[in-house]
Design brief:
Elements: H1 2-28, H2 33-38, H3 44-54, H4 60-72, H5 86-121, H6 126-140, H7 143-157, E1 170-172, E2 175-177, H8 182-214, H9 218-225, H10 230-259, H11 262-267, H12 273-282, H13 286-314, H14 316-325
Antiparallel strand pairs: 1-2
Amino acid sequence: MFSFVVSRILQALPVMFVVSFISFAMFTYVGDPVAIMLGQDFTEAQRAALVHDLGLDQPFFVQFAKFVVNAAQGEFGLSYRLSRPVAELIAERAPATLELALCAAVIALCVGVPMGVYTGIFRHSWLSRFFLTFSLIGVSLPTFLIGILLILTFSVWLGWLPSFGRGDVVRLGWWSSGFLTVSGLKAMILPAITLGLFQLTLIMRLVRSEMMEVLRTDYIKFARARGLSNRAIYFGHALKNTLVPVITIAGLQLGSIIAFAIVTETVFQWPGMGLLFIQSVGAADIPVMAAYLMMIALVFVTINLIVDLLYYAVDPRLRIGRGRGH
């Protein structure tokens, strides 16, 4: 197991290097941060001085080498727009995005898996047809439209939930949590549903198709012949084997939730990393944009490693196969 983890980490290092190079190269030639920082009235001497202070007068590979060395130490330089350390900005915004992603993932799993199991077992019931119709709506509608419709319904017409912001938060050291206040929980509902709806429908359809496939296998027929109850067959045998591909999709979707929370955070003005990225794009804030992409790449690499480890806990065939390989 230890060698497996080490090999995955060593494989992740080239991936992170390539991502850092692409992100830094892509954003280096986007916009003019110097002009944005100086405004409209500036002299050439002021521009040259600021370019020198930011290190933009150095060759590209020198700038990239410094960026990589600093990133390895957790330092991503100063934000051109806010003149603050990028690591500090991300640390401030990370709790909002991570809590939103956690709520969206919990909603997707806790609702999507039971709906998938039900529609896989009772394929012809009217409730299954309703769930499938609902899933088509969730897959078809874009995220921003879902968010706008939820705001229109529950904020404008009914007035039950706030339409923007994070509500009141509680500071726990460097972490800020909205789970401990009523306004924070109310503000979490609409963006979490908006962000998790697509993942919910995807997980539901995946569980349904896998459940139907597993129920047609020979060992399920043998279990029925042995006289096992439907409860034991569905949840003791079928569901456990259904979860193997679900773990992969759920893990990757968690990374997608964090990476693509940009739209949801923009619609609800949620003060997370996605909104910080959008604001940085408008100001050509290269350090923030490059650091955000590197962090998202690190999230996906970490989730892939966790998913691989969960395979060992769910599917014993993988442990046996790896033992034979050694």
